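User: Working on a comparison across species. This one is HIT family protein from Billgrantia antri. Can you predict its structure so I can line it up against the others?
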Amino acid sequence: MSSVALDERLVRDSYPVAELPLCQLRLMDDTRFPWLILIPRRSGVSEVFDLEAADQRQLWHEVGEVGRMLKALTQADKINVANLGNVVSQLHVHVVARKSDDDAWPGPVWGHGAPQPYDRNDLASRRDYLLAQLDGMKLQL
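Assistant: Here's the predicted structure for HIT family protein from Billgrantia antri:
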């Protein structure tokens, strides 16, 4: 699958975790919220409906599998899935684990306080843990 350049804000605010069949999976650099981002490797795409039908199905399949994994790992009360694109137009989907006692509950995580970046050791550990959980998941339709 071809490589697609990422918007500089996605690169700056998140870290790569894995290459899924359609998307690059990234971890948002904010320890307050377990927060993953899926970015389809397709050029010039800003809306879900810009994707071919097969890619749309694959995107939602990957979002669903990642959401189930994140909910199980975090024991979240709710998984928020969002595709906004008001600031970063490149198509990307946020999958955020929410708990009723988190800093932003019940409001959105966007714009709530200052992000608390991961320490590099914690980041590596978190990435390795997520990779282990992804192993064996049914990410391909």
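For your comparison, note: The chain has a mean pLDDT of 93.

User: Helpful, thanks.
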